Each structure stands twice: as structure tokens, then as C-alpha cells.
Amino acid sequence: MIGAALAGPFGWKSAWRFRARLALSLTAVAIGVAIGYAVHLINTSAVEEFARGLRAMSGTADLVVRGSRAGLLLDVFVKLARDPLVAVASPVIELDARVGPARKRVSVIGIDALRAGTIAPALLGEASEQLDVLRDDTIFLSATLASELNVQVGGNVDVEVEGVARAFRIAGWLSAQAPEAMLAVIDIAAAQGLSGAYDRISRLDIRLREGVAVPAAIAQFQAQSPLALSIEQPDEIEQASARLSRAYRVNLTVLALMALFTGALLVFSCEALMASRRRAELALLRVLGMTRAEVIRSLLRQSAIVGIAGSIVGLLLGALIASLALRYGGGDLGAGYYRGVQPGLSVSIGAAITFMACGIAAALLGGAMPALDAARVAPARALRSTPDLLGASVLQRTVLRWTSAIAFLVLATLLVRLPPLLDLPLGGYGAIACVLFAALVSLPPLCAWILRLLPHGRDLAFWLVTTRLRRAPLEASISLAAMVAAVSLTVAMAIMVGSFRGSLLQWLDRLLPADLYLRSTGADDRPRLGAADQTRIAATSGVRSVEFLRMEPVMLDPSRPRVSLLARDVDRSSIAERLPLLERRVAIPAGVIPVWPSEVAAGLYGLRVGQTMALPLAGAVSDFAAIDSTARAGEPASRLGPNDAARAVFIAGIWRDYGRPQGAIVIERSQYIALTGDRAADDAAIWFERDEDAARVTESLAWLGSQVLMATPGEIKRASVQIFDRTFAVTYALEAVAVLIGVAGLSAGISASVAMRRKELGMLRHFGLSRAQLMRLLVGEGVALSGVGAIVGSVTGVVLSWILIEVVNRQSFHWGMDMHWPVGTLIGFIAALIGVAALAAALSARRVMGEDLVRSVREDW
Fold first, then answer.
1. Least enclosed by CB within 10 Å: which of 224, 265, 375, 649?
2. Arithmetic mean of pLDDT, 493-504
3. CA–CA distance, 197 with 220 (Å, rounded to integer)
4. Residue-level pLDDT at 685
């Protein structure tokens, strides 16, 4: 009872002497919680705002009907609006426009206010005059766009679509239920005038009559239509959009939690070293009557308070980071999934409690083993004056067993063989954790084995360093735990990102053999290169040959985003020269239509070479001919009947594609034209005549206008690399945080070790070692420790990189990549770590040697 009564005040007064180390533990927990919570808030806010925007746009619609990229014919709208199953059909035109003096890129929605008001009231503007919503010269702006343009009601704003500009009067703002995005709404007639397509709409929102089953309505609409329609439910669109980015979001969250795991290891190191310094005090409490359970509770209470305080600070810091990131960077975290979405911060009490629990759990796990060790040491032994490191009891019976490490590695081997669960690489995450645990539990014997390989040498300081470290591997491993975890994760991510970057550059080299590339950028997503344009491009002086490409989104699964169908000007005999094929079937059966799915499409839909699949050619791919100049000149335009909406095609190969995360399927353009009659093109690859000047050819193609972008392969590569680096910027930041925590742990361990050895250093000074020799001894220990940590961490990181590349990456994104070793980066990183450890050891040595070391020896006399 006396010991328990003294434990609180006596323990905390004693612990306060190590306030710097407690602050370091608290900071590590706070950083881990902050990063994880910030990533979660950014992801959740972006997804919720995106989903809210979709719900606001579709309102109470049961179905959303689309045609091809050219749009949906008004005839289809009229027919469906009169269908007895339909209660309300609201036509919508979606335009990509430039607004204001700065020509900011925004989404402009054209609606029929009378129909949209019953389905999507969020799109109706709040105007002082009710008739303003029906006028074709008024516009309503979202709050985000109005703030960006700094305009007022009653003012004018210019809207430009495909070079056609028109002034609109600002009649009011969109309602608070509208999406927080760069959005404007105009009357549908005005939208038709801007786009120039008076016979088409972008989509049709349908609300069915009460009692009508959605599946039955979809089947009837598709059977009645002369064209293959894309009919989706708003919930499916929302789920498909969220599903596309889910793997990226989960991977970022897991990586952020790794920073918290590194923080837990730092808590473990600090608590173990503090317990060693306080062992005599704890032994005194035991003598006064404190039980082992009370010792454990007292130390765990200290860890819990560190965890609680660190978690609270981390939640506040995480909310601040998320708020700044959403305000200045948007919600896509550099990946481009939610570009254009301007979400507000969406704080969840449940998520805050979860991350706070994670922070407290990390602190308790970090302090559990030192607490158990402190309770198991006999008081008589602990009252000795030499403060050697605690941990011989529990650690030697569990952590130091090779069998534990082998068991973790066996479990990791089994986990990497698991298929994805819920479309997530849960087995891969588990395997990474097992490999990390295997490295950590085997760290003491690994340290001893590596240090035995060091030569004894003739220098006294060097001999003392190697001898002491060989005989104290447990102390070394405790100091190195956080560093090994940080180095492992950093090396793994560096190899994975370097491999991805190198594979991307190789892919671009293979995919961009031409001298110049054209891409049409129609604001309503319609292709701009008609047959007459293609003929003129091919006839341009200096052009040797041209290959055209048509891109059409097709839906293979309503629960997933659409796959890009790429109709390319290549034939099956030369396909290997144009695509980076991974698998290829040399013999293609006669009479079949060959296609080549990308690696992503094959992974998402389980496609294999040699299979036959149904390829839906959605929505009047052919009906673009109705507005194509060649069709107006009398060219026939074939149309697909309802039974021809899906064609049977043969999978002749699988190719690598990093440009389309939703998947792509390549088809010969000649086959595509034969099936659809669509001769339009979106892109063109141009080869020049020998020694032809690129600037002259580009100038000759200026007649294409601003709606066609031109770029050389070098420009495309530079832009792609910039996008790649932006995408992985958050990854780099998370790596840096983990490394900082690991280095802080190593520095704290070195500092504590030097402080605990004052008597030992005093004895060496008493025997005649100079200050310079002691400095070399301590710096040498820091270098040796960091070197061991770098070796163990690098080897572990190589194993983790294989899991990331072959398991996590493939199951998350279905992308493969070749291994590329960033040797220079890794060498520089390891050298910097060793330098920081040497500096920490030198600073600690300088502080200790400023005291009278010889006098410290007399404390035992």
C-alpha cells in the first residue's frame, strides 16, 4: 500500500527528469496520428463532396441515360420522355467552358428548369425574379465560382465554348445544396447555342413512375431503342467513381499508419531507456511494498498519458493539415481522381475517436515490454549502482528467438499468396507487417552477428567500440528499432517508386515513336478530327505517315468506371511494334475480331489471352456520322441494332498501359469502322519526312485551331513525369516523416546510452583515455549502430519492395512494372543517416564530457 501510494507522485517527479524524452515520444505519436487523420479527412472529404455533387446533379433520378461521346439524339429523349414507365425525363447538356477574363476552366450545365426542378432542384438558381431561370441570357454560379471570379449579382460574365464566346447576366447563385465546385448553370437552349449541337443532349435524367422496377425499365428502354444506350443508376455511378480511387486512398492511409507504427517503436525505445535509468527508483518502490502489477500499471499509465496527449495534439494538427491541403491543393492528393472538386472539411467524431485510439494503442504497445521487463527484475539486482539495460527477461524469451522471426516469414509467405479481399490487397498489407516484425524480433541476434564481422583493429577506441557493441546487442537493437522500421519502409518505397518511374519512362518510349502528336479537346468531349480533317493532315507537306486513334468509353460492368476502347490505325501484324505487349497469341483464328486489353482491364475483369468476350459498343458510336462532314456529304452511316450492341471479340494479347487506371481495350480501327461506321478520330500520331523541321510542320497544321493540342514526344514525357511526381508527392512526405521519427529514435537512444555510461566513460578517462579518444569511441558507436540499422533496414526494405510491386501494386491497381534500383538515391540516403547518427553521438559526447567524468566514478566509493 505504501509503495502504491508513493508510485504516483514519486514516479511522475522521477519521470519529469526525462521530459525531453517524453516530449519526443509524445511528438512521435502526435505526428503519426496527425498524418493518418489528415489523409483520412482529405480522402473522406473529397469522396463525400464528389458523391454529394453526383447526388445533387442527378437529384431524385432513378436512371441516367447517355449515348456516345457525341451525345444523345433528341429523338431518343422524346421517345423516352413519352414512355409510360417514365414520370419525368430531364435533359441535361454538360459543357467544358472558359469563364471570366482569366478564362478559368469550369463546368457549365444546361438544364430545362421546368423539368429539372422536379428531379434536381439543387441545379436551380436562387434568383430575385423567377423567370430568370428560364431566360437564355442568364447564368447562375456556384458559391465557389462566384468567389473565384469576384463577381456580384447583376454583373456580366463571358462564357467561351470551343472558341465561341457569349456574355451572360449573373441572375443569382446556386443553392447551398449544389456541389462546391467550379460550376455554372444556364438554360438548355443557351447551352445548345454555345455547343452548336441543337439535335443532341449530354444525358437524360429519368424518374420512373411509382411501382416500376428499375431492372425491368432498363431492359425495356434498351430493347425499344434503335441504338445501344448506356443506362446507369446514380448509385452505381457514385460507387464506380469511389471504387476507382479506393485503392489509392487505402494505400495512403496504410502508409500514414506506418508512420504511427514507427512512432510506437520510438515510444518503446524511449520507455526502455527511461526504465533503465529509473531501475533503482522502481526497485525502491518494490522494497516499500509495490507489487509487480502496480509497477506495470504505473508505467503503462505513463505511456497512456503520452498516447492521450499525443493523440489530442495529433488530431488538432491533422485537422489543420487537412484544412490547408483542401483549401490550397484540392481533394485529390495529387492523384487527379477528384481534380476540380473543392470539398470542405468533413470532420467525423467516429474517425477522430478511432485515430485517437490508434495513438493510445501505439503508445501502450510501445511501453508494454519495458513495463514488463521493469516488473520482472529482482529489486536486489536493480538496486545495484550500475544502470545496465533492462530487458533480459521478457525480450530474451520472446524477441530474441529465431523461431519467432521464421514464423513471421512463413506467415508472410502464405499471406502474399492470398487473392485480394474486397478489391484490396489485405494479404499484402499483412505480409508487410509480418516481414517488419520478423526483422524487429531478430534484430538483437542480427546486430551481434553483423558486429562480429567487424575486424578488431589496433586502435584502442575502435577496439572498445566493437567489443562493447558485440556484448550488448540488446541495447543496440532497442535504439535501432524505430530506425530499422523507418529505413525499411523508405527503401521499399524508394525502390517501388523508382521502379514505377523507370517503367513509366520505358513505356512512354515504346508508346511514343512518332515525331508529333495531336489530340482533340472538344469541350463537349466530341472528337474533332473528321474524315476531311484526317485527309488534309495526311496530305500536309513534310508528313510521311499518320496513324489516327478513336477513343470511345464502353461499359463492361455497371459497378466500375467505363473502359476506354481505343481504335488505332494498326493491324494485327504490326501490333507488337505499337504496343508494349506482355502476352501475345501468335495465331489468331480466322473470322474473329481481335482486341488487346490493357493489363489493368485484364486484371479488373479477369480477361485472359485466347478468351472470347462481349464488347458493348455503346450509344450510337455510329450516330456521330450524322453530324460528321463526310456523312453529310452522302457517306452511309451504319447503325447497331439492339441485338448488336455487344459484339463477340477475341482477346489476342495483353499490353501495359499506365495512362488509364480504369482500363483500356485496343481494336483495329478498320474493324471498328466496319462495326460502327464511325470514321472520326480523337488523336493522331505523325511521322515526318527525313530532316523535316518540326516547327514548320506544326505551323502548317495551325489551321486545326485551339481545339487540337500538339505536342512532341519529349513534351509529353516531361508532362507525364511531372504528373507522376505530383501524384507521389504525398508518398515522399510520408516517407520523410517516418525517417525523421526513426532518426529521432536513434538519436535519443545514442543520447540515453551516453548518459547512462557516465561512470564507464569516467573509468576510461581515469585509466588515461584522452577526450579525443572518448569522442572517437562514441562517434564510432553511433556510426556502427546506424550502419547496422541501415544494413538490416535495407535488406528488409528490398523484401518489402517486392511485396509492394508484385502483390500490393498489382492487386490495388493491376499495374505491373520492371524492377529498377535507385542505387544513387539509396546510397545518399544511407550516408545521410549515418552522418546524422554520428552528429548525434558527437553532440551527446560533447555534453557528457563537459562534466567531470572522473568524479562520477567516485559516486560508487
1. 224
2. 89
3. 28
4. 93
